[in-house]
Structure formats: C-alpha cells, structure tokens
Design a protein that fits this description.
Oligomer: single chain
EC number: 1.1.1.100
Structural class: alpha/beta
Pfam families: adh_short
CATH architecture: 3-Layer(aba) Sandwich
CATH class: Alpha Beta
Helix content: 40-55%
Order of helices and strands: EHEHEHEEHEHEEHHEH
Radius of gyration: 20 Å
Family: Belongs to the short-chain dehydrogenases/reductases (SDR) family.
Largest sheet: 7 strands, parallel
Bound molecules: NADP nicotinamide-adenine-dinucleotide phosphate
Protein name: 3-oxoacyl-[acyl-carrier-protein] reductase FabG
Strand content: 5-15%
Number of helices: 8
GO molecular function: 3-oxoacyl-[acyl-carrier-protein] reductase (NADPH) activity
Length: 284
C-alpha cells in the first residue's frame, strides 16, 4: 500500500452529520476538493464558508434522480473531474421482517441500495471518460452477518455489496476501483435521529427484534467508533494504489468478520460431504 500525494476530487452523499460530515471535513482539511451534499444543504454552510475555494455544496436526496444528475454535473463543472464517489447516505430500520411495513421496507431499500446504485450509475460515464475513479460505499456490520431485528437494513446493505462486487470487476478495464466500508458502531446520529422503527411490534419478536431495538437505544452516544478516525481510514483507502474491496472499521466489526469466516468454514466443512457431490456422475 502506498499513498498518492495528489489532491482528490470527492463527491460525498449524506454530509449533514456523522461519517459523511467527518469525511468531508477531513478531505477538505488535507487540501482535497469536495462536493459535499445533503438533503438540506444549509447544514453544510459552515464547511462552504471555511473552504470557499475547495468546497461546493449541493442539495442531494439520493431518491431524487434530478438532484443526483445535478449534483454530479455540478461537481464536474466546478472541479473538472471526479476521483472519489462516496455513497454514505443511509439509515437503519429496526424491526423483525414481519413487523416492518411494505412502505418502510421499500423506503429503506430505496435509500440504502437503489439510491446508492442511482448515484453510481450516474457517475459511471464520467469515470469511463476519465479512465478511472473510485467508488466507495458505506455498508454495515449487518452485511457481514445480520442481526435479528435488522433484516431489511442488512438486506439492503448486502444487496448494495453484491452490486458493488460485480462493479469492481466490470469497472476494472477502465480503471475503476471499488471499496465497501463495513463500520461497526460509530458515534453519529445513526441511532438518535436516523433510525426508523417497525410500525407494528409483535409480542412473538419481543425476545429477538424487540431486544435488539432496546439494545440499540442503550448504545446511543456510547458507540466506541470515532467518526474522525473512520474518515482517516477511508482517506487511507482512497489514496492507496491498491485499495481494498472491503475495509472493515473498528475492533467490533473486525472481530465479527473473523467469527463469521470461522463459522462459515466450519459449516462448509460439515456439509460439504452432502452438498459437494451434486454434479452429474461421469458418463451421464
Ligand atoms: N454509525 C454507525 O454505527 C454505522 C454503522 C454501520 C453503517 N453505518 C452507515 O453509515 C452511513 C452514515 O451514517 P451515520 O452513522 O453517519 O449516521 P447519520 O449521522 O445519521 O448520517 C446519515 C446521513 O445520511 C443522510 N440521509 C438519509 N437519507 C438520505 C437520503 N434519502 N438522501 C440523502 N441523504 C440521506 C442523512 O441526511 P439528513 O440529515 O437529511 O437526514 C445524514 O446526512 C449510513 O449509510 C449508515 O447506514 C453507520
């Protein structure tokens, strides 16, 4: 891994608070040019004032295709190129699958998955024309292995990961890099402000999803992850010659990956004698 000293042009979604805000601030502080976006760009006025030459702000709700197009075009018009696109905008939905409404499920996928794919697809012609770029998606520990009570959120993040894995292969011929960031719990507005909750809690899920929802409540403000240190790690990946496909953030998520790999290996070994010999036998 070696760092490139070149100044980068970033577009980051969801910069009003949390990880997006920390990343925009850190990139600006190192001298990069940043298109900082938010649903309410007034929340970014201080960044624009502090970095008048290198920060542009755009209104961007990832569910609004016209805003996505305008933000991408505005970034290239202002800075001449786009080096790093960060799909950070997102929010959790806590509740068992049965407890969440159809509208809540659709909305969560629309923001966490389809919105991110929309932003990526809109940026791809620019990356192809430049013959390079870097797509970074903020995924979640729920996409490593999911929790009872996070079925929809984990599914949306894992769907995004599936598309991004393929994109990494599809974009390689024109120099595109792709990184999926898997954060553990970070101290942001994720629980207090951004978390949606199932509309119809059911007693049968009290010990699973209900317990998880209560646990999340106790974690607010106590998450061990520091957004500034997450931003530094993401910048290290963005400036590396060979960035990782997955960047796992924090001790919790790192341990979760290790435990998940071990459990998968054990299950594969235990069931390979059953699932393995399923090709046609020779001569058939
Ligand atoms: N913090 C954690 O523990 C954690 C762990 C794993 C993954 N993540 C992921 O990290 C990302 C950032 O979350 P965070 O922790 O920094 O929480 P946050 O402080 O609540 O920030 C979430 C950001 O997403 C924005 N957003 C929500 N819906 C949007 C939409 N439709 N269009 C554009 N922006 C939208 C919010 O904007 P508004 O201000 O307009 O609502 C806000 O700027 C999310 O994708 C989240 O799933 C967080």
């Amino acid at each position: 891994m070696s760092d490139s000293p070149a100044s980068l042009v970033w577009l980051i979604t969801g910069c009003s608070s949390g990880l997006g805000r920390a990343l925009a601030s850190a990139a600006l502080a190192r001298g990069d040019r940043v298109a900082a976006t938010a649903r309410q760009p007034a929340a970014l006025a201080d960044l624009a004032a502090a970095y008048p030459d290198t920060c542009r702000t755009f209104a961007l709700d990832v569910t609004d295709p016209a805003q996505v197009t305008a933000a991408l075009a505005g970034t290239v018009a202002a800075f001449g190129r786009l080096d790093v696109l960060v799909n950070n905008a997102g929010y959790g939905l806590v509740g068992a699958l049965e407890e969440c409404s159809e509208a809540q499920i659709a909305r969560n996928f629309e923001v966490n998955c389809f919105g991110a794919l929309r932003v990526i697809r809109t940026a791809l012609p620019q990356f192809r024309a430049q013959k390079g770029g870097h797509v970074i998606c903020i995924s979640a520990a729920a996409a490593i292995a999911n929790y009872a009570g996070f079925s929809v959120y984990g599914a949306a993040k894992r769907a995004l990961e599936g598309a991004a894995e393929a994109l990494a292969l599809e974009g390689r011929p024109f120099g595109l890099k792709v990184t999926l960031v898997q954060p553990g719990p970070f101290r942001t507005d994720f629980i207090a402000r951004s978390l949606d909750r199932a509309t119809t809690p059911l007693p049968d899920y009290e010990a699973t999803s209900g317990k998880f929802a209560r646990f999340l409540g106790t974690m607010d403000g106590k998450q061990p992850g520091d957004p500034a240190r997450a931003a530094a790690a993401i910048i290290a990946a963005a400036t590396a010659d060979r960035p990782p496909l997955r960047l796992v953030l924090g001790p919790y998520a790192t341990d979760k990956v290790r435990r998940t790999l071990t459990a998968s290996q054990r299950e594969l070994d235990a069931w390979a004698p059953v699932g393995g010999p399923t090709d046609f036998t020779a001569g058939t």
